[in-house]
Amino acid sequence: MSAEIRSKVIGLYKHLQYLGREYPGPNGPQKFRQQIRDAFLKHKDETDPKKIMALVAHGRYVAKEVEALYSLKKYRALKQRYYD
Amino acid sequence: MFSSNARNLIRSSLINRCKSTLVVAEHNNEALNPITLNTISAAKKIGGDVTVLVAGTKCGPASEALAKVEGVAKVLVAENAAFKGFTPESITPLVLAAQSQFKFTHILAGATAFGKNVLPRVASKLDVSPISEIIDVKSEDTFVRTIYAGNAILTLRSTDPVKVITVRGTNFAPAAATGGSGAVEQAPTGDYASQLSEFVSQELTKSDRPELTGAKVIVSGGRGLKSGDNFKLLYDLADKFGAAVGASRAAVDAGYVPNDLQIGQTGKIVAPELYIAVGISGAIQHLAGMKDSKTIVAINKDPEAPIFQVADIGLVADLFKAVPELTGKL
């Protein structure tokens, strides 16, 4: 794996782990982080750079969804507390 | 400094004096679409005179109803065979003709398939930037709209001479349908028949259920329903409430239901009192379309589904058991 791709994968992993810190629900952070870890380990033998980049793109999509989920959850909570 | 202030003052008072708004009404030649009333509320918030334009092949019922709406000063009626099917190619020249006669400062329509079809065309003909799906009016030239799929809110000031705006109906209370006394007038006449396109026919899905965008209760289904036939479960449940039925993008893409049921960023934006999501995992694209619902109930067999994070009440159960049980108890 070239150094460039390697740093991208590691960066994505760290970013997802960081996002997981606030995942809601009982044991949310632990569960989410374990899921991320499992998902990465599942593809640990992947060597084709194209396939790796496709997986990274999928990971980034997941990160975006999680970020949006947080902001939506916050939106609903604030709306219920102040506007309803 | 003083002179520029004075000039601004004169300019703003001039604008204030001339402020007038045109609302393009939406109707189906029989009845008025309720979103027109929400749009009139937005127009009243901008201030100035509110004029409503009704175009169609048979405008009688809609124009009579509109003349009675509180705050409507004038109703312009254009009855012409050219408006059959409400094609933007024929309605745009009419709006432009009305605009050149009355010199409106704002042109509004509801953010529906009709409004989103006509107004961008009007805006491009007037060489201004359209302002789409506003959720609030701050002042005559400052509006609020959502961006990034509703994740951020943008307040924008338009410097265009004419503001062309579509209004998100769920964010404005409907104007009172009685108490007004608007004058009904004929719109400027002209040859509006379009050479470019012609209305052939349309097929509407007939339904006794309320329309999605205005429904108080919505039951919606996702890919968890597994097939189009299973949507019957939802229709049965919806009939108990008098609810509308919606669907997520996944269900539409899988071909379970037609795309006019789609709720979400690319579909309809809804804000019912009660929203029941069945077999929907909760992709952001869907959640963005229903986040303003008062109460969200989610039924899903996967306890990890993101929808439970935004739902007020969650039920982790197999929908094929839970939904018939719910229907039976109501």
TrEMBL record, chain A:
On the tree of life, the source organism's domain of life is Eukaryota
Q: Where is the Complex 1 LYR protein domain?
A: 8-61
Q: Which GO terms describe its cellular component?
A: mitochondrion
A single Pfam family it belongs to is Complex1_LYR
Q: Which GO terms describe its biological process?
A: negative regulation of oxidative phosphorylation; respiratory electron transport chain
Q: According to its UniProt record, which protein family does this protein belong to?
A: Belongs to the complex I LYR family.
User: What's the protein here called?
Assistant: Electron transfer flavoprotein regulatory factor 1
* Organism from which the protein derives: Bactrocera dorsalis (Oriental fruit fly)
In the UniProt record, the gene name given for this protein reads LOC105222064
From TrEMBL, chain B:
Q: What are the record keywords, sorted? A: Electron transport, FAD, Flavoprotein, Mitochondrion, Transport
Q: What is its main location?
A: mitochondrion
Highest taxon listed in the record's lineage: Eukaryota
Q: Name one GO biological process term.
A: fatty acid beta-oxidation using acyl-CoA dehydrogenase
Cofactor requirements of the protein: FAD
The record, for InterPro entries, names: DHS-like_NAD/FAD-binding_dom, ETF_a/b_N, ETF_a/FixB, ETF_alpha_N, ETF_asu_C, ETF_asu_C_CS, Rossmann-like_a/b/a_fold
MF terms (GO), sorted A to Z: electron transfer activity; flavin adenine dinucleotide binding
Q: Name one GO cellular component term.
A: mitochondrial matrix
User: What name does the UniProt record give this protein?
Assistant: Electron transfer flavoprotein subunit alpha
**Residue span(s) of domain Electron transfer flavoprotein alpha/beta-subunit N-terminal:** 21-203
**What does this chain do?**
The electron transfer flavoprotein serves as a specific electron acceptor for several dehydrogenases, including five acyl-CoA dehydrogenases, glutaryl-CoA and sarcosine dehydrogenase. It transfers the electrons to the main mitochondrial respiratory chain via ETF-ubiquinone oxidoreductase (ETF dehydrogenase).
Q: Detail which positions bind FAD.
A: 223, 248-249, 262-266, 279-286, 300
The note on cofactor binding and number reads: Binds 1 FAD per dimer.
Q: What family does the Swiss-Prot or TrEMBL record give for this protein?
A: Belongs to the ETF alpha-subunit/FixB family.
User: What's a Pfam family this protein contains?
Assistant: ETF
Q: How does it assemble?
A: Heterodimer of an alpha and a beta subunit.
Entry-linked CDD domains? ETF_alpha
Q: What is the organism field in this record? A: Bactrocera dorsalis (Oriental fruit fly)
> Where would you find this protein in the cell?
Mitochondrion matrix
